[in-house]
Amino acid sequence: MATGAQNFYELYRRSSASCSLARSIGGALTDTLDDLITQDNIDPQLAMKVLANFDRAIAEVLQDKVRSRLSFKGSLDTYRFCDEVWTFQLKNVAFKMENGGQLVNAERVKIVSCTAKPTGATA
Amino acid sequence: MENNLPIPTTLPGVEHLINELYKPNPPETISQIQEALQRLQKSPQGWQLAQSLLARPGDNIKFFGALTIIVKLNTERLSDDDALSVLQNLITWLVQSLSDGSGPIVIRKLCSALVTYYIHYSHTWTKCLRHLIYSLGRDAAVPIEEIGDALPLDQVISELSTQKFLAASWFAATLAEETEKVDTKSTKYISLHERVLDNANDVAALMASALVPLDEASNIPSQREAINCLQAWFLYAQRTPKQPLIQILQALVQPLVNCLLVEDLYETTVELLTDTLSNWQQFFTRQHINSLYALFESEWAQQRYQDLLKGDFDFDAVQFGLFMLAFGDAQMVEMMDTTDTRAQAFLAGLAGLLTARGHPAAEDKIFVPALELWSAFVENLVDTLYSESTNNLPWDKPPLSQVMQVVSHSWQKIQYPSPEVYNSWDSTDKAGFGDARKDVADFLQAVYTISGLPLISFFVNLILRALSNSAWAELEAASFCLGALSDCFSEGNSYDDALTKVFGSSLFDLLRQGQNIIPVRSRQTCLYLIERYSEYFVRHAEYLPAALNLLFSAVADRHLALPSSKSIFTLCSSCRKLLTSEIDAFLEQYSALRNNQDLDSLAEERVIGAIAAIIQSLPSEEHKSNAVRRLLAMVGVDVSACLQFKSTHGNTLVDQNDPMVFRAFDISQRPTSPILAHEVASLLAIRALRCLCSVAKGLQAPVDLDSDDESTLAGSSRDLEQVHADITEILVQLKDLFSNNAEVVDAICTILRAGFSESDPGPFVFPSQTVTELIISNWQSRIATVVNTASAFASSLNAGRFKQHAVPTLGALLPWVFNLLHQLPDPEADPELSQYGIEFAQRVLSRRPEVLISQTPNVLEFLFTFAMKLLNGNEPLPKAAAAEFWTTFVTAKSDDPNVQSTLNDAMLHFGPQLSQSLMQNIGGRASRSDLDKLSDPLKKLIFQHVHASKWLEAALNDPNFPSDKVSSEDKALFVKKLVSLRGGRATNQVVRDFWLACRGSNYAYAS
């Protein structure tokens, strides 16, 4: 009997779409829904519902199910807080995977972080 | 779908069709029936049909009648008089259905129909609930004008039968649910939401009549439905926050809280309260909070709390725990106030939740959510304490003392049970318990930010106490917790004194005494602890020998092989400079380990990699070459055996007890009968190559050296050349025999790649000619992986060491890659090969355009045509690689005027084709997720080339343009926008908008 009042971000629909060759799950899902619409197998209303469910499910799964962790160190170059969204730009970042796993280095990293419950979720 | 069912012309015919719809029929039949009935519903006779169906017996028939009314209300606009007539009929049917024994599905559907009516004609039915209740009370549709505020609603409600009350509640709940879906911000619906608000007092009166019954006799079904209705209204009020409505609903919270004490209502009530506390804390007034505090202090709550702690994890009990946590979440700020004694007492109760009986996840279902709350609490605490010094925090007073209590409870809870108990759990319980331990690690890291050294000391002392008491489960848990904190340590040695107490204790001695003393799991965790604090050993070399001796002694134990080998690798890698003098001892240790028949292959790879890391730090090239040769000699034993087995006849069998079979198979996969020699050979090849991979990675320099340091060019000694020759011989031999094995190909490529990033000469930094010859030789499988390796090699050629070899090397590799691509029947036949092939060409083009351009015209024509086909194709990864190739091509520059002239000519030749391909894709052919990638060459084209707009216009006006949804003006405007943006970032959005316009509004569902 969840009240279900919470809104969910749509950012995972296109997450990592800008990565060179990595397709996001959300991007692949949207492409598939586009194909299904093209083939007249579903209508756009259903596609919209599927994406809304995806927004909810991906947020919940990332919050509740994903247990992998990593830590990172780097130099904070710039940061800002606008419209409830924090943005950090880091330089020379070293990512350390869980359990002393592989070290991954990146010259530049941008972190965008939003509050877990989007504004408007609670009155 | 073509419908071959005729529309029935008689009422019995329709009824038959409806009954068929609800019977188990094939999906095609159901679809045809649905289609026929929908046509009937939408026909002008739909109203008449609905009326007739609602007068007929049978729930399915009546339900379909009500559904038809909903369809008509949603699709047709009526005059107010006609609408009111429909309303009167609907209420009449509802009253009749309540008396003629119709099922709940009919009543609920009629309530939905009434709500649909309200959404479309609320101006004709402003006091909807009041009117419905009066009509239900009088068993007839009362004229609307008779309803006024003066009528005694409470009395009418109290006289309603349970059935009528339920109907009114369903209507009220549906009213909130459906109007909540109507856009609250649109001006079109402002009046609707205002009218809904006008009914709120009547809704509250209806709910209150059930929640606060006037007489003692409570009616559980009515109360339960009232709570469900309240949930819908809470949700509506949360989405449409209006103070008067919120105040009306707030008045019902206390009666709702009282329902918790009614056993039959507990579950519904506690869920609603928990959800509302979690999602809408602001709804609760101070009075409500006081009431809830009093509730939690009551005997009733204490009993439930105690039941939970005693291990009652039934649904109701866990719900109570979640209710407490939701309240705690709402009281986070108050619980941080040390002067709020009531909040502090509740906080103590929340700490107590972590002491419930049983193991987390497997038995104790409240531990994980409780710990989540505590993690959030500590994070909030960190924020408030952020500006204060953490040196003088009152750890002996709440709330910090509670935090430490939770730390204490947590580490006790994550102690492993006995092996018998643990093995009795199913995989979900085991995984849940493991996850709970990770949650504790997260929590401890949060606590560390306000605690620091005291938290480290706490676990150090626990380890020492466990050692002295031989309490191995405690030792394991405390070591796990201390290990979890290693990630928090910043550079420096401020906590070394505390760690010395552990690593200088009897721990290592006890661990060496085998599992008769300390159980396997505790030993595993302690071995990981060494790995977690490898930096400590860099600063305290005095403990390094003991640690390494312990780890090497444990590698042979199959239960400890993986943790100990991992720790060996980390420790040797971190402390490589301290260990160079012991390289002989390490090599001997490795040699001795190889005699162990049960040595795990992964553990061996880590150990040999660890030794390679020490070799990397040896002071002279001669020492390095000698040590590497000794390692190679040992790996060579496997290679020789492998070659020998491979040279036997195809059916030759090897005894399963042959020592080389033990090397080929890890203990868990050993065969129980003789096995084919060729199979043993390929497994030995893989093991040898993986060991070489590990050596190659271990020998990589830990930090990037200056890649332009020309002095390193002279370092290639005769010793090194010999090592290169030895390794190359192994690689060539194994490739020639086993390149049909994907794992072999992968391993050889990994070995080659290990040298690409190195700036100094080294055993695995092969001459470019050697790499080239190996790459372009004959491979039986995974050719795409080899091409990908060639790409990485092409990128590495810009480093100082290889610069002078770049042109001849690329000159040899390019024809090889193009030949592979040429052999494909079509560009998408092997997407992986196409992708890596075109990536290779892109890298050559970006770094050495003159090499690419120097290919024969035929080859170049093939390459560009190939890249164009991929851009026009459907395979996403090759398409993205092709987009990147074209982006590079459009911007390619060369200092050589001849090369630049050729590039310009090529651009003039391919520019129109590229424009055509991009416009076809952006005109709707491409997938949505391809658009960003396709925007890149477009942006460069517009920025770089004067003819771009002309080419693009021509492409857009081509007769084969895939969409007819955009006009010539739209296309012209699109080009104008692109040109004005001059390749800026906003181009991506313009491209998306145009793609959407070309595809049509059906695709506008996603942003």
UniProtKB/TrEMBL annotation, chain A:
Pfam families: TFIIA_gamma_C, TFIIA_gamma_N
Gene Ontology biological process terms from the UniProt entry: transcription initiation at RNA polymerase II promoter
Superkingdom per UniProt: Eukaryota
Keywords: Nucleus, Transcription, Transcription regulation
Domain Transcription initiation factor IIA gamma subunit C-terminal: from-to ranges: 73-116
An annotated GO cellular component: transcription factor TFIIA complex
Entries under SUPFAM superfamilies matching the protein: Transcription factor IIA (TFIIA), alpha-helical domain, Transcription factor IIA (TFIIA), beta-barrel domain
Subcellular location per the Swiss-Prot or TrEMBL entry: Nucleus
Coarse class of the protein's main subcellular location: nucleus
Domain Transcription initiation factor IIA gamma subunit N-terminal: 8-62
Function: TFIIA is a component of the transcription machinery of RNA polymerase II and plays an important role in transcriptional activation. TFIIA in a complex with TBP mediates transcriptional activity.
Assembly with partners or alone: TFIIA is a heterodimer composed of the large TOA1 and the small TOA2 subunits.
Family according to the record: Belongs to the TFIIA subunit 2 family.
PANTHER family, A to Z: TRANSCRIPTION INITIATION FACTOR IIA SUBUNIT 2
Official protein name in the record: Transcription initiation factor IIA subunit 2
Organism: Xylaria grammica
UniProtKB/TrEMBL annotation, chain B:
Cell location: Nucleus
GO biological process: protein import into nucleus
SUPFAM superfamilies hit by this protein: ARM repeat
Cellular component GO terms, alphabetical: cytoplasm; nucleus
This protein's UniProt keywords: Nucleus, Transport
Highest rank taxon of the organism: Eukaryota
Family indicated by similarity: Belongs to the importin beta family.
Protein name: Importin N-terminal domain-containing protein
